[in-house]
Design brief:
about 300 residues, mainly alpha, Four Helix Bundle (Hemerythrin (Met), subunit A), 2 domains, 8 helices, flat
Length: about 300
């Protein structure tokens, strides 16, 4: 089976337009470096002419000389020019590698399959991470609602045993706070439940039971805390929170593990794509002039 490394063919020719652009960038980089070298030489000469008195040192600390300003501008220009040139070169390397890859039918077929798989596992990974975060948010919201309901229930009992108007006011505020916490818990649970079907549908290369627990408890999480408030049963609302937490806590751990597994799978899929691309990228990079100071890094990829 042929590969870019085994072939003596230098690869598809660089078209005339790209060749002209490449030569233009080489000239611009050389010009910017020359301007920087000249500015540096003028700065060093100016420094050498200065008298070494405490007054001249103080002036140097407090002011910027024309030579220093010119050097700073030349340095910034050289950096910006090189950055733009390297951006052009990275795109060119990616395009050359893609053309060479397409010319190798066997390698291109493997690359196409690997890219499709990477897209699928990345989608699944994003879903897993989202679901794990939603589960953590829901757990925190239900836990806060449980604590608020328990506190409001205690204060309600104290209020029943007291004629103190301040305690009645405090009980009212705690019940109101508990109602707000319950609403937030309901909203968090609804967001989690809404995300479960799409996450389950996007499942790729993870154990078959990864989302099973989530699907099970999602179906059983229909509840209405506010009905407990309407009936004045704060204790019942607290117990309902405990019931939900008992089912949600293990799911949070399972989803965190599913998210971790998705990251591992995505990384492996990305490495599989990169392994196919690397020989073609190396060959393409070898065709770029050294003036671009470009090395094979993760941001150099085969053109999509």
């Amino acid at each position: 089976m042929s590969t870019a490394q085994e072939s003596q063919d230098p690869g598809p020719a660089i078209d005339t337009h790209d060749m002209q652009d490449m030569q233009g960038w080489v000239l611009r980089v050389a010009s910017a470096k020359s301007q920087l070298a000249q500015a540096r030489a003028r700065l060093h000469a100016a420094e050498a002419r200065k008298t070494r008195t405490w007054v001249s040192r103080l002036r140097s600390w407090l002011t910027t000389s024309p030579e220093q300003a010119a050097y700073a501008a030349a340095h910034e220009h050289a950096q910006a020019t090189m950055a733009d040139a390297q951006h052009f070169a990275r795109d060119l390397v990616g395009a050359l590698a893609k053309a060479a890859l397409q010319a190798d039918s066997a390698a291109f077929a493997r690359w196409h399959v690997a890219r499709e798989r990477l897209e699928r596992v990345n989608t699944a990974g994003a879903q897993a991470r989202q679901l794990a975060q939603l589960a953590r948010d829901a757990h925190a919201a239900v836990l806060a609602a449980r604590d608020a309901c328990a506190s409001a229930s205690t204060m309600e009992f104290v209020d029943l045993c007291s004629t103190n108007k301040a305690i009645s006011a405090l009980s009212f505020m705690e019940t109101s706070d508990a109602a707000d916490a319950v609403r937030r818990a309901n909203e968090a649970m609804q967001r989690l439940q809404a995300a479960v079907p799409s996450a389950h549908a996007a499942q790729v290369d993870v154990p078959d039971d990864t989302f099973d627990l989530v699907v099970d408890f999602a179906v059983d999480f229909g509840f209405d805390f506010l009905s407990f408030f309407n009936m004045g049963k704060l204790d019942a609302a607290t117990e309902e929170c405990d019931r939900i937490l008992a089912k949600l806590s293990p799911a949070v751990l399972r989803l965190a593990e599913a998210s971790r597994q998705a990251d591992v799978t995505s990384s492996a899929a990305a490495h599989a794509v990169r392994d196919i691309e690397l020989p073609f990228l190396r060959d393409a990079l070898a065709r770029v002039p050294p003036e671009f100071e470009l090395s094979l890094s993760e941001d150099i990829v085969v053109a999509a």
